[in-house]
Amino acid sequence: MLHDFKLDSLQTVSLNGAALEPLYHAPKTSSSLVAKDKLKIYNGNCHCGAVTYSVRSELLTQTGPPVCECDCSICSRNGYLWIYPRIADVEVHGEEEAPFTDYIFGQRAIHRFCSICGSSMFNYLQDPKINIRPVNVRTLNGLDAKRLNVVRNYKPPIVLSKD
User: Fold this and answer.
1) What is the dihedral of CA 77, 51, 82, 55, to 10 degrees?
2) From the CA atom positions of the chain, what is the Rg in Å?
3) Residues 117-149: tens digit of each pLDDT
């Protein structure tokens, strides 16, 4: 284990991994979600394509809603970036048949992974009164993390379900 390691002090080298062969092609995704007001439908999937999903969100840009760079140990190790839409704004396609593995870390979140490729797409919160489904934007198709409003240690608003 590294002690006193400062991630921000590393020198970075640019690499365009997306241009390496074989080129990655996201699977086709169809959604029953409808874009409304200033909301857009984004499609995402795990790397192998066994799990696809859609999310309705505000436009994700540098001036858009906050995208959380969580500093917990699992998120920082894996580079997850999160948005926090309402549960009704996330549609997992074929969720009953999808190959999921759940990992419970801490007391709040169940991290949901594809059992085939290991991609983490979203979390399920253990409190049924909280009406949000955290989504890992790194699994959304066509987004560039450098062009998002990334905020470190952002604490999302808690949206409660109506009883």
Assistant:
1) 170
2) 16
3) 999 999 888 888 888 999 999 999 999 989 999
Residue 105 to residue 161: CA distance in whole angstroms: 23
Kindly list the distances between the CA atom of residue 143 and the CA atoms of 17, 128, 146, 149, in Å, as whole numbers in the listed order.
Answer: 15, 30, 9, 12
| Stated pTM of the model | 0.80
User: Three-state secondary structure along the chain?
Assistant: CCCCCCHHHCCCCCCCHHHCCCCCCCCCCCCCCCCCCCEEEEEEECCCCCCEEEEEEECCCCCCCCEEECCCHHHHHHCCCEECCEHHHEEEECCCCCCEEEEEECCCEEEEEECCCCCEEEEEECCCCECECCEEHHHECCCCHHHCCEEECCCCCCCECCC
What is d(CA 158, CA 110) in angstroms, rounded to the nearest whole number?
16
